[in-house]
Each structure stands twice: as C-alpha cells, then as structure tokens.
Amino acid sequence: MTSIQSYYNQIDPSYTVVYPSSFIKAIMWKDNPNLVSYNLTDKNSILNMLKQHAITQTLQIGFVSYGFEGSNTKQFLKDFLTFHQLESVAPFISHRYFFHGTCQPNLFDLFDVILISSELFPLAIRSHRSGNRKHGLYSASDFVSVYLEPFRVFQSSSGVALNFRNHSHEIFCNETIPLNSILIAYEGEIESYFRILNGENNTLFSESEVLFLNRFNSFAVPYLISQNISNQLKESIVNFYNISPNSTYLSFLFPECTVCQKDFCEDFFIEDYWFIPVAVLTIFHYLVLFISGAFKSPALKIRLLVPYLLPLGSLYFETQYSPMIANVCPFVRIIFVGYIITWFTITYGFTIFRFYYLRNLYHIISIKNVESTNKKIAFQRKISRPFWGILLTVGMALIATLILGSPFLVIVDTSISAEFGFLSNLLYAIVIGIGCVIGGIAIIIDVIFNRKILKEKGLNYYLFFDDPFLIRLELFTLSLTIIFMVICYFGNYYIFKVSILIIYCLVIMSSGFLASFKHILTKFMNRKKKEISNLEIYLNNDSFKHMLREYCIKEMSLENYKCYMSLEQFKMKKDKVIDLELMKQFETDYISLNSIYEVNIPSNVRKSFYELMKQVESSHSQLCEMAEDGNDFQQATNSQNMPIYSNLIELLSVHLLTNLGDTLSRLETTKEYKVWQQLYEIQSKSAVI
Question: Per the record's keyword annotation, is Cell membrane included, yes or no (predicted)?
Fold first, then answer.
C-alpha cells in the first residue's frame, strides 16, 4: 500500500482520498471583547463575520503562512474567499509570514482572528508564546479554533494504514529535538485524528468540504466511501491513543514542552559548532600574519585593510547563520549584513584597482611631461601613500555601498512573505558572485594583455616573477568561490556547510594569506643572510641588473634601483667636486618629498643629505668667486675642503643596498633567479666573467 499527502487543489486521481490531514482554521483568543458580539463557534459564523468585516472593517484579521507552503496558502486564501463568494474581503485580510525572530509583534496580540493551518499553529504558539493578553506563556487552551476547509488530504492506493507516533513527555520535551520536528508533527496529527473522530454526521468529510475539494480539482475526487474502513480507521485511533468519550484534543498536547529556551528560539544549537572551524581559520591567519612579521612586508602593505577586514568578514558572516544571532531582529540584521558584505566586496575591488594603478604609475609618469606636471605628480605621490590609500578605498567603498546596497532595503517590503529569506540569500549570492565574476573577468583580460609573456616565459614567470605580490593568484583563488556557491545551492545541508567552509578558506587565502606564506618561505630560504658585498658583485653583471630591474618594476620599488645606478655613474668621478645642478636634479628625482622616485631612507640620512647639499651650494659660490679672481679652475675643483661625489656615495649606498637586499631576498625565491645563479656560477668557475 502506498500513501501520499496532497494539497487541496493538487489531488492525485490515481489515489483514494481518505481523510483531511490538515485544515486551515480560524484562531481567536477566548476572552477577546472585540469578538463577543459575533459568537464565533462554527464555520458559518466565521463566514458571516467576514462578510460584516468587509463593511465595518472593525477587526484585525490575519492570514499566516510559513516556509515552502507560502505560495499554497496564498492560493488557498484566494480560493476559499472565491468559493464562499467573499472576494470583497480579500483587501482587508493581512497576509503575514511566520518566522522565528525578535523585533516583531506577537501574532496573537496583533490580530483578533488568525487564519492558520492546523500544522503551523503548534509551532506559532511556541514561538509567539508570551504577549499582552495574559501573564505567563500562551497555550492552545487560551484560544478557540474553528475549522474552515481542508488544506491537505491523506491519499492511499488501497486500504488505510496509519503510522502512529509514540507520545510521551520524555520524548517530546527533550531539548535535543528541533522545535519544528517530532513534537510539532505529533500535535498536528493528533488534531487531525480528533477531527476524524468528531466528523460531521460521523463522516470523514463534511458536505461543504467535499464540494470545496471538487471545485478546485478538474475531476471527480475519488473518496473513501466504505463505512467499514472508516470505522476501522476510527477504532485504530481510539485504541492506540486510549481515547475515552470524555477525551479532548487539548488533553493530548504538551504545552509545557518547548525546545527553545527563549522566545523566537535565539538559542544555541548544534549548527553553531560550525563557527569553530571558521574561527580557527581566522585566528590562524592572524597568527601567521603577525608572528611572521608578514604585515610589514610590501606585499601586505599594498593590500591596505584587506588582510585585516576580509577574514573578520568571513567570521562575521558565519555568525549570522547561528540561531542565536539569526533570530535576533532578522529584518534589520539582514539589511545590515547585506551592506557589510557589499562594503567588503567593493573595498576589495578598490584595493585591487589601486594596486594596478600604482603598478603602472611609473609608466603613467613617464609618458607625461614631468616639468609641466609637477603638481600632478606630487598629487599622485600623495594619494599613493597608505593613509590616503585607506581613506580613499574605504571612503569610496562606503559611498558606493550606499547605492549598490539599496536592494537590501527594498526587500523589507517582502518581510511579511515567504520570499523574504529567499530574496535576502539571493542578494548575498549576487553581491559575492558579482565580485567573483569581476575578478574572473579581470584575470581573463590580464591573460589576454600578457599572452606574449605567458607564451614566451610560461605560467610560473607570469604568476610569480611578473607578479611578486601574488595578486593574480589571489584573484584566481577568489574567483573559485563561484563554483562552491553553485554547489551550495544544489547540495544538502552538510554539502552546503562544507562548501561554505571552503569558501571561507578561499576568501582568507585571498586576503593576503598566500603572500604571508610566501614571506615565511622567503625568510626560511634566506635564513643565512648574505653579505651586501655579494649584491654589489651581482650588480656588476648585466644579466642580473636587467633581471633585478624588471623585478623592482613588478614590486613597485624601482626607485632604489635607479638611485643606486645614479650613484654608480658618480663613481667614475668620485674624487671630483659635486656639481650643484646635478645635486639639485638628484634631490628632485630621489630625495625630496613627492619626488618621482622618492627613496625610503632614514630621517637622519635625509638630514645629512641636505647638510651635504648646503656644502655643495657653498662650494659652488666659492668656485664662482675663484673663477672671477682668475684662479685656476682645475686647482679649485681639487680643493680638499669641497664636497666630492664620494661623500654622496658613502652617505647613501649602504642604505640603498639594504633596500635592494630586501628585494633580492624575495627575488631569490623565483625560478628566474635560480636559473641565472646556476649560469652565473658556471661562468664564474669557467672565468668567463
């Protein structure tokens, strides 16, 4: 024997309709003074009240739906009013969507009459369980209920066989049982069984209920008409539950049993343990970031707030799935979460955009007439500083979020419908998905523009040497989240949670974790610090200089290389007096604030440079005076009291070599360097160089 449950308008003609398994009924507070004059005791009195309400509109009437049944209950209300010729009442009935959550009025306080399914009522009374109508907890005994029409029916292929549930206080009051599972199903079923026992004229369906079902199905509904089978069904119910003539439906309920310790179930559940692996991932990321000192590296500095915000964002987003949080003001919370996710996504996007802007800053400056655009260059140098970078990326992201996050405000209008939860999750997926898609498009465009490099030098060069900050690798990693978002949609609960955990891993890896790992690897491989003299030797090799220059460009530290090369040129005249014009040009290019290639040197060294520059200016005046007096110019330039180029070289070379040494330590981890070093050693041993 096969049995199914069907909605009132979706009855399967190949199965026999046995009995109504659930009803839509009218629920009213017993002592509501607004209802005294109506004497609401049966369906006809409810229908008369609705007719009068369409005229007077003095009552608050609500229709409550829940979860996946939302569309079916909406259709039921429409069909119910049509069947009873009450279409004019529809505008005066409020449709509410039931959900667990604070910051909402109690349904039983809000309405005088509630139209609700017999299956949903046990759940609603345990969620909206305290209010203004009485002290203490509400229970089913505080209400009067009137059955309206069948909502779902039990169908069988042949005969009747019921699967009764064992009922006991120990089973139903166990806090490990989810609120909307066994207990709620039991109370809904026991109500339908009592409805069978107390059917109109000893029948399973009243005459009006048969007409209602026939009206909304396009065939003659096949009913169970055997009185013997009907009697067997009732007898089995009475025997199993030991029902006496004086037994009532309410006596078989367990109003004291509720899993939730608080109203609206903002309690701790087993699902909350998924927070632990996310917290471990986040803590591990920060430990790696700070203990290794990676946060001081250029690769992490260029990411501004991303390494600190995105992992926290993952942790924050996971907490929103916890019933302890999810049921607290869900409407306001979902809007807030939506704006937070949008802001994080846009901030990450602006940070990546800023990186590519800075990476191409040398090219942008080189194609301009520097002499005529000093102010523009100074402005570019200013906004490229971390403080201004944070201010601009965060500020612009906030402004953009106010606009792009507005859809989360729109879904407030759906807060009383079943679509609210679906739309909010859909918007989350759209925001994150758009970010991933844009990242994927950026990767494709980058591959197209750099296809020559990929073809000639391979993927390793493209991902590591040409991108020492690993931005490309992170964008590729982040774009993978779109795959697991799709898996989340089609998988079951555990696949969903595992996929979400993988997404968190990908987000954290894209928040600078890969760069931190590279920093640790670099430190480990270079734990035996090389002498600066080795770097000086390497800088005599043309192949090394070309490779170092290319790497400095990719790492946005070309200023150290160019400044050192300028000092190398000065070595050819190290014993000569420094030319004032060359000194001024050197200061403009490398030393002054907002200079094109401003080098990072200690403040005391910068101070010493300007002291040396004053000496150069003074020596220039002396040279001019000596020339006017007719003294030999060559003799003047060899004066021991005048600053010479070796003074400038000694002042800056050590600090520049230190900066270049940091770059070299990262260059040494690349395949290109290792190949060069092997060839260099062969050439050295062969006395070729």
Answer: no
- The rounded distance, in Å, linking the Cα atoms of 45 and 145 is 12
Return the amino acid letter for 203. T
Is 154 within 8 Å of 19 (Cβ atoms)?
yes
Query: What are the CA-CA distances from residue 127 to residues 71, 74, 98, 412, 601 (Å)?
Result: 22, 22, 9, 21, 66
Centre a 10 Å sphere on the Cβ of residue 318 and count the other Cβ atoms it contains: 23
Strands annotated E in 363-497: none
* The residue type at 454: L
Q: How far apart are CA 440 and CA 80, in angstroms?
A: 51
Cα 547 to Cα 361, 362, 553, 559: the distances in Å are 20, 17, 10, 15
3-class secondary-structure state, position 467: coil
Using one digit for the tens of pLDDT, what is the confidence trace for 584-612? 889 888 888 777 788 888 888 888 888 88
Q: How far apart are CA 672 and CA 139, in angstroms?
A: 76
Terminal C-alpha separation, the chain:
92
Distance CA 507, CA 26 (A): 50
Partner residues linked to 210 by β-bridges: none
Please, are residues 569 and 578 in contact by the beta-carbon 8 Å criterion? no
Report the predicted TM-score, pTM, of the whole model to 2 decimal places: 0.66
- Collapsing DSSP states into helix, strand and coil, what is residue 395? helix
CB atoms within 10 A of CB 360: 12
H/E stretch holding 339 reads helix 330-359
**Residue 370 has what pLDDT?**
45
* Token reading at 479: 């774009």
Main-chain dihedrals φ then ψ at residue 4, nearest 5 degrees: -140, 165
In the structure encoding, which two tokens stand for residue 634, read together? 């060559």
174: left (phi over 0), alpha (psi -120 to 50) or beta: beta
- Which DSSP string corresponds to 244-290? -TT--GGGG--TT--S-SSGGG----GGGGGHHHHHHHHHHHHHHHH
Cα–Cα distance measured from residue 688 to residue 427, given in angstroms and rounded to the nearest whole number = 65
Number of other CB atoms surrounding residue 434 within 10 Å? 15
In DSSP notation, 615-637 reads: HHHHHHHHHHHHHHTT--HHHHH
Tokens (6 digits) for 286: 């920060």
**Residues 356, 540: Cα–Cα separation, whole Å:** 31
Q: Which residues contact 177 (CB under 8 A, 6 or more apart)?
A: 171, 183, 259
Q: Do 115 and 61 contact (CB within 8 A), yes or no?
A: yes
What's the token pair of residue 481?
Answer: 């989240």
Q: Which of 489, 468, 470 is nearest to 478 (CA)?
A: 470
- For residue 516, give the nearest of 219, 225, 306, 256 by alpha carbon: 306
**Per-residue DSSP letter, 671:** H
Q: 209-239 as b/e, with b when 16 or more CB fall inside 10 Å?
A: bbebbeebbeeebebbeeeebbeebbeebee
Please work out, in degrees rounded to the nearest 5, the angle formed at the alpha carbon of residue 136 by the alpha carbons of 131 and 142. 75
- Element spanning 126, H or E: helix 121-127
